[in-house]
Amino acid sequence: MTSQQPASAYFIAENEEKSERHTLxxxxxxxxxxxxxxxxxxxxxxYNIEQLTVSETMQARHISRITIVTSGTAMVVGQIKxxxxxxxxxxxxxxxxxxxxxxxxxxxxVKVAGKGENRVEALRMADAFRARVVDASxxxxxFELTGKTRKVDQFVALMKPLGLIEVVxxxxxxxxxxxxxxxx
Amino acid sequence: xxxxxxxxxTGAEIILRALVxxxxxxxxxxxxxxxxxxxxxxxxxxxxxHYLVRHEQGATHAAEGYARSTGKPGVVLVTSGPGAxxxxxxxxxxLLDSIPMVxxxxxxPTTLIGNDAFQECDTVGITRPCTKHNxxxxxxxxxxxxxxxxxxxxxxxxxxxxxxxxxxxxQFGTGEYVGPENIEHKTYKPQVEGDMVAIEAAxxxxxxxxxxxxxxxxxxxxxxxxxxxxLRELVELTDFPITSTLMGLxxxxxxxxxxxxxxxxxxxxxxxxxxxxxxxxxxxxxRFDDRITGRLDAFSPGSKKxxxxxDPSSIxxxxxxxxxxxxDCNNVLNAMIAEWKKRKYKADQQALAxxxxxxxxxxxxxxxxxxxxxxxxxxxxxLQRLYELTKDRDTYITxxxxxxxxxxxxxxxxxxxxxxxxxxGLGTMGYGLPAAMGVQVAHPDALVIDIAGDASVMMTxxxxxxxxxxxxxxxxxxxxxxxxxxxxxxxxxxxxxxxxETYHDGMPDFVSLAEAFGAVGMRCSDPGELDDAxxxxxxxxxxxxxxxRVVNVENCFPMIPSGEPHNKMLLGDxxxxxxxxxxxxxxxxxxx
Lengths: 184, 592
Prior knowledge:
Chain A is of the alpha+beta class. Helix content of chain A is about 30%, strand content about 35%. Chain A has helices at about 35-45, 75-85, 95-100, 115-130, 150-160, and strands at about 20-30, 50-60, 65-70, 90-95, 105-115, 130-135, 140-145, 165-170, 175. Chain A starts with 19 loop residues before the first strand and ends in a 9-residue tail after the last strand. By secondary structure, chain B is an alpha/beta fold. In chain B, strand 15, helix 16 and strand 16 (about 420) form a beta-alpha-beta unit. In chain B, helix 1 (about 10-20) runs parallel beside helix 6, helix 8 (about 195-210) crosses helix 13 and helix 11 (about 270-275) packs antiparallel against helix 14. The longest helix of chain B has 15 residues, at about 55-70.
């Protein structure tokens, strides 16, 4: 039994296990401080948050859903899940990456400024990516784009030479496929 | 509860009423501006006894001692701002050692929160990472339910500290009281019954083991005396050897025939080598702490591991195990006993005999041996005598943190659970003295001894005033070597004997100090007079500070040097002034 050692003060040998990206869906009571508990857990224990999305999803029951994208070895991600479940206001945690093939979407607002050929090209690209124009002026556009993280990354990269000004992104919302709901 | 039955009262009254309904009899605290309404209610009732500490840290440790020696939650009441921040050390200590505690903190009125008001601090923000859970109660109608929920959270699952922050206007306001009867937490429902499939697999693995070992921890103690009884039965049934962490001492008696002594950094040679060489490890209520495992990539390399823990996040946190079982130790131990009996399992007698013969070879190394001395008191000798002279009494031991703590674990033979109160996870110097006060409150007729070091005891010495005020005849037994011994030992091991700031110049005269508080002071420096002095201490019906002058430069062995595995122990008789500096390699030096 030698494999799978997580970060620890006493960990000496280099960890050769691969770090993986995981999407966790967390059902919590929407009460003051709940997000601070979740974020504090990550910073306090040295875990990584790559993306974080949170909103109330069941208003009558004051329940919110937090979607977290994190990375770590399988053992560390398992530990993150167990630590999240230990928080008192957390109802349940689902590792959508382990469940497999979840639907992940994020929304980006992308501001591009320019004239002439660049402006036409930006519009053409936006059309190809099915981005919508939500604001336009003589020399700028704001595009709204939804999709997987990779698609958004790609779009942003393409806009760069065409006069990219700024980008805001929501972080992903993720849901499992099929008829079942997550346990609340 | 129907509207008609609901009782209305002030927030302060609600707090007192809820404490009574929770069965609380004793609380530890210190008044201040933001909790005066609660103290006013305390003054007007006689169901709850309040013990006045001299610093809020003392209140938290007293509550820990109370809780750990009784199994009941310890209750603390402190004011806002500095009252709350002073409690943080004890809250963190209770979190790391899984001690049930409910701590009420006063807060500035809700209208002033966020204004940097006098004695305001963000108590829930500060205590969020050092509590199991915390609450800020903004409406008096939520207060009763929150208190009952807090007691539920503190005592269910893996126990821990819970803070309830109560603004002053909520204490004055009038609201509805609800009793504890119908309080059920909507999400927090810890799993207490172990999965039977896993238990069956675990017991089958145990039955096939050739070199098994039980490795148990504080979880067995927290699970109640029934769990310790079940552990003893299972050890008897299987006849496997057993070792324990510091926090688990007493769950299996140190006099028991299968006992190997404590394991870990200052554990016994036989316990650590048995951990290294075993083929099946049954971990019950322990968490593979770094003091236990030593170097992780060489931790018990050839064993299959079974891990029983009530906290799922403890499993596979540090060491990947083969059979995880989430559940309360008592339930799982009893299920294991039933399964072992049902299948009529019998351990492999030949293999077990060989294994025990091997362990006896290690035991013969006599790793706790020290050089006796007729002129000065050896600290180990002092604890051996303390044990012999107190073992037939109803004795509770607390400790501070350092060499004396490890010697206490090695030389005081605990044979019952809940008898050792010590700061294991956080390692809080200054824990033992106030913890002893809490133990004495819970067990007024028992002999309560704080085995202390001269450095640690100074950290909370002000609580002697509490022992005088409340007539708590605790015995503070200081192994005084004029050094911060454990830090000095590490400086010798790691830093070429440069003893930076670890010598105590300006040590108080502990006898005069005791007398200044109104306690009894004693001193002994002659091994020949030690027994009589200890007997006199025991028979003194008052708080005693016993200044036991021990040899100054003794170190605590055996020791697993940092960065080394279990089979690379450093034994006391191998260590010389010459080789002590090279015992730890470069990689190990960065570790704690």
